[in-house]
Amino acid sequence: MRIAIQGFEGCFHQIAARNYFGKQAEIEACASFPELVRKVKNAENADAGMMAIENSIAGSILPNYSLLKNSGLHVIGEIYLQINQQLMVMPGQSIEDIKEVHSHPMALLQCMDFLAKYPQIKLVETEDTALSAKHVRQKKLKTTAAIAGDLAAEIYELDIIARNIHTAKNNYTRFLAISKNGVQPPADANKSSVYFQTSNESGSLAKVLTRIAAEGINLSKIQSFPIPAKEWHYYFHADMEFESLDHFQQALKKITPLTEHLTVLGIYKKGNTHT
């Protein structure tokens, strides 16, 4: 399979794709999330996609929810990836040789406690963690380090001189596996992502949530979004966890009369956590 990802070879999206689809999966690198969605939707060198949707520290990636809703694509699975940041250099270099550290602004921010120990080192913001590692290798920058994941060090043959330098050790990103045609839900499916609207009447959303709770469904995520054409009207993205497919289907029947434009994006197995 060829999997569309946002970012460059060696990025965390690729790590997530390899963990979910297997190491044999080929990568179609995309410069942006809209490009990723377009390539999956139009089958442009991509059989499926892997897209970050939320982070345990930074929160939801709101534009990606809207992209997903408007794309008509299906969610076929998910994976949770621990974001471990490594300091990497050209072989033979040490921390004393380093004058600059290059990486994405978020990665630099995540590693600030470590970097503060070396005030003499200049921090340089770039567009991507893996791209920073690539530039160190291609330009043979002997006084420059990059912050990226293990895969980038492996691909670009860089030495990791400091491991797990991020301050918060509980930093996880949730990625969704998406496809154009969807797949048959597995027999052990226990999670679903849906979109729905409610009427603008008082208590309409509360009725839906009450019914979900009454059916024993765990609402692990709910995110509201304004409807551009209607002032003060909203649609909702909801992730629901359940015991069995029959359990979910029964709950769906109960909430459908209380909602408008309910769409099931996918039914899948709750994702595992990878480091």
Automatic annotation (TrEMBL):
<dbReference type="GO" id="GO:0004664">
    <property type="term" value="F:prephenate dehydratase activity"/>
</dbReference>
<dbReference type="GO" id="GO:0009094">
    <property type="term" value="P:L-phenylalanine biosynthetic process"/>
</dbReference>
<feature type="domain" description="Prephenate dehydratase">
    <location>
        <begin position="2"/>
        <end position="180"/>
    </location>
</feature>
<keyword id="KW-0456">Lyase</keyword>
<protein>
    <recommendedName>
        <fullName>prephenate dehydratase</fullName>
        <ecNumber>4.2.1.51</ecNumber>
    </recommendedName>
</protein>
<dbReference type="Pfam" id="PF00800">
    <property type="entry name" value="PDT"/>
</dbReference>
<keyword id="KW-0028">Amino-acid biosynthesis</keyword>
<feature type="domain" description="ACT">
    <location>
        <begin position="193"/>
        <end position="269"/>
    </location>
</feature>
<dbReference type="InterPro" id="IPR002912">
    <property type="entry name" value="ACT_dom"/>
</dbReference>
<dbReference type="GO" id="GO:0005737">
    <property type="term" value="C:cytoplasm"/>
</dbReference>
<comment type="pathway">
    <text>Amino-acid biosynthesis; L-phenylalanine biosynthesis; phenylpyruvate from prephenate: step 1/1.</text>
</comment>
<keyword id="KW-0057">Aromatic amino acid biosynthesis</keyword>
<dbReference type="InterPro" id="IPR001086">
    <property type="entry name" value="Preph_deHydtase"/>
</dbReference>
<keyword id="KW-0584">Phenylalanine biosynthesis</keyword>
<dbReference type="InterPro" id="IPR045865">
    <property type="entry name" value="ACT-like_dom_sf"/>
</dbReference>
